[in-house]
Amino acid sequence: MGFKSDIEIAQEAKPLEIKKVAEKIGIAEDELELYGKYKAKIDYNLLKTAKGSKNKAKLILTTAINPTPAGEGKTTTTVGVCDALARLGKNVIVALREPSLGPVFGVKGGAAGGGYAQVVPMEDINLHFTGDFHAIGAANNLLAAMIDNHIYQGNALNIDPRRIVWRRAVDMNDRQLRNIVDGLGGKANGTPREDGFDITVASEIMAAFCLASSITDLKERFSRIVVAYDRDSNPVTAGMLNAQGAMAALLKDALKPNLVQTLEGTPAFVHGGPFANIAHGCNSVIATKMAMHFADYVVTEAGFGADLGAEKFIDIKCRLAGLKPDAVIIVATIKALKYNGGVAKADLKEENLSALEKGLPNLLKHVENITKVFNLPAVVALNRFTHDTDAEIALVREKCAQYGVNVKLSEVWEKGGQGGIELAEEVVRLCDTPSEMNFSYDLDMPIKEKISAIACKVYGADGVDFMPSALKEIENLERLGYGNMPICMAKTQYSLTDDQTKLGRPTGFKITVRDVTLSAGAGFIVALTGAIMKMPGLPKVPAAEKIDVDENGVISGLF
To answer: Is the alpha carbon torsion for 216, 219, 220, 221 positive or negative?
Structure first.
């Protein structure tokens, strides 16, 4: 049998009609808002009903080591273990983020899983889906338009055009739009000023959308968004522009979670998608709670490694939404660990125990974070490749056993749910293990101390250096009463440090915070490190060059 691509596997699948998937979790056809035969939205008001599982759902978080070019397979594992739990007879739902068009057409590709552990319809999920991201971008840009219109119409709020902090958004990697000058062409066309675009998944609208518990909560979050400062340095909010109602109206349908399915017909909620190296990197609170309302086991994921996604899942999402994982899956591959140990990508198929031992501390630091810092039970899911040797697997098991964590092999890419049974059984065992979750910092700590706690406890840094601009803004935010919010670190995903070239488990380093920004609507403060930008660019050869569609509407080249 020849090699099949992810999109070929997805296109050969025969999915259930979505109403049949909904029946599995007790949702009737008349409670679905159908988007064709294989997608539907679910009204979030069903959370208020008595329908659903009578058991308190077990929440399982999937995270990983720092990503490498060798690949880890976090979403694939998340989907596969969900199918494995279904094979064990569990009432289970998977809850994932929606992919951004930027990575789909850029370097990373889609985010619907891979091989025989995917959510479908794969092409729809990766391209537009139900239009949620476009609605979020529209709400973002409505607010931007209302700011500039307010200034044009007399500026009753005395907004300082030099201190507008709200940017426009588009869901595409377009470096040309990072920094622009707009309002040119004379008085009738607005006030000339410096401006710029963020990618939609980095917008505060996306973060607020994913942390909101209802449409009312969403409006309240929007009203708190700080968009500018007046000439007396007082914050100007979206609520002062009366923008929150119209913005929420644009999102009334987008806020409803999207129901799809895995290749094995397991229900899947795919909803929301903030980046994890910039924003908090988790699917929507509403979708997670909806899944927990209708299932006994819910498997979800957080973006990138445990230093970013899992930290934010716990310190931000769980804290703000009252959630707690019952078990954590940490995904790794032997290839990625050898890459962390200094092996070139071309040589990763060769057995190399010394490089593996050198790279293992990266995995072990993530294990330590989950089990020691956050005090949660964990299992390492080792995505198995045919060239992994028994000696290499034994070394990973030995090192993880020293941390009291079991290693379970995962073959879900090749075998679907059947390849994740061993992992699923361990997850069930862990879910029955009592635990008391810790956060990495207390909310009432000063902003600098909270940032330092993340850097030292989670990254393993010796401390934090704050640039003068960051210190000035921290002082300003604490003066304005925003000091008791959680911290959202914007940091490279490729390293535990803020330097993406430092692999493994570096020591003797400090994190440099160059600036901080306020996301009052989302409810957190963003600390910017390294060269992280809120608008990525396309690579030299973007994935878009390989994507095509034929006369029958069949898409090729997606991965």
So the answer is: positive
